[in-house]
Amino acid sequence: MRGRFLASTPFTIVLGFAVVLATATLAAAAPPANLNVTAMPGNEAEDAIAVNPTNPSNVVAMSTLPDVVAGLAVGVSFNAGTTWTRRVIGAAGDPLGEICCDQQLAWDRFGNLWMTYLVNTSGDVLVALSTDGGSSFTRVGDIVTNGDQPSIAVGSNSVWVSYTRSPGKQIQAVGAPVTGLGQFGSFSTPENVPSPGNGDYGDTAVGPAGQVMVTYQNAVNGQGGADIYTAVDPDGLGPAGFGKPTVVAHSHVGGFDFIPAQPDRSIDAEANLAWDRSGGAHNGRVYLIWTQETPNESDNTDIMLQRSDNNGATWSPALKLNDDHTVNSQYNPAIALDQSSGDVAVSWYDTRNDLGAGGSGDTNGIPNDDFQIWATDSTNGGTTFVANFQVSQGTSNAVDADSFFDTGDYTHAAFVSGAFWPAWSDNSNSTGDNPDGTLHQFDLYTARVFIP
Fold this sequence. Notes:
There is one protein chain. The chain has 452 residues and is mostly beta strands. The protein has no helices and 35 strands. The protein has strands spanning 9-15, 18-24, 34-36, 45-51, 59-64, 72-77, 85-89, 99-107, 113-119, 125-130, 138-143, 147-154, 158-165, 170-180, 183-184, 191-192, 200-206, 212-217, 226-233, 246-251, 257-259, 262-267, 272-275, 286-293, 301-308, 319-320, 330-337, 344-350, 370-378, 389-390, 396-397, 413-416, 419-426, 443-447, 449-450. Strands 3, 32, 33, 34 and 35 form a five-stranded antiparallel sheet that branches. Strand 4 (45-51) and strand 5 form a beta hairpin. The relative contact order is 0.15.
């Protein structure tokens, strides 16, 4: 049984396609040990993380450096985060290029660590590969396009990148076959998602048969509503291409929705995908998470989840994952699925404990602007989720980071061999090793959360 349930806390779950109410009755537990990945001066935000399925003690995490011209802060561990080898990649003169931002990571079953990213010197979407556990990367793909917001995903025998091409905000994707460690083919010609295939802030997932799904939102400016779309290429590297997109949900979170916790950068609906290829009871089930605001312009944002068992043809009703009873903000969610078990977990930035009344969740007496990382998980295909649990030991504040970037547009998580690894930007200095001190610039943090 799990010791992280909140005592007698009700939470909503989906049973089949019906929403029911359940109650958890176990005692609360303290947050897991937090790990400072970067421990370097300046801000690290917009975080990526991946764990090696061939060696689950091998963890790689990285962050954008918003205070410098180019570069990513990278931490590599071969002992499950006990120690980190830290460096900056993508600075001036690096063969990877002058990396500005939008990095994502995906680790395949062969031990290849794939990365996509953007550079300052062109509008190309680039792909890099590491075959040594993240200790070094080599650029292996250059998608010549005016691209934005790339995402990367792996399947059993393929790697895929989707992105937004301008002008026109056209969603495109490319894929390549992968046959072993360091063994891969050429990337395909870019595939357009057919109309209405225009949008941004998307994600990519690969199914058990090599099929590919992309998600995105169609409204990318302002604070109004946005439709959340998915589109599927049913044969992946085959000739079929993407089918007509499906409107899965409507969010009141636009492309630049400003909330007190993200007053400069804002948030988007941040739709993300996870596809079960585990071979287990829910093999083929795909999960979609996104952010809702109710009512519009209330700053009461919530994390929603839907699932599909038919390649996205139909979706379950939206389930609210955060179980707080406040009108505070939850935002920038990350989802990850353990392909060894089919278990799924979700983490997000959460201001539930900041009521402006002091205490551990409030740093300044202002409500709804201080955040922590919270999470939940399901071991039965999303039929039930455990009560939310706090992951971050400290409380952070984006205004105190003194950056236009806040925590950025996104964060990510990994889930391998029973351990869930959320990544987040943190200036609480709860680990005592942030060189900028407490409530100043962000470091990149993670934690290993065991899912029994």
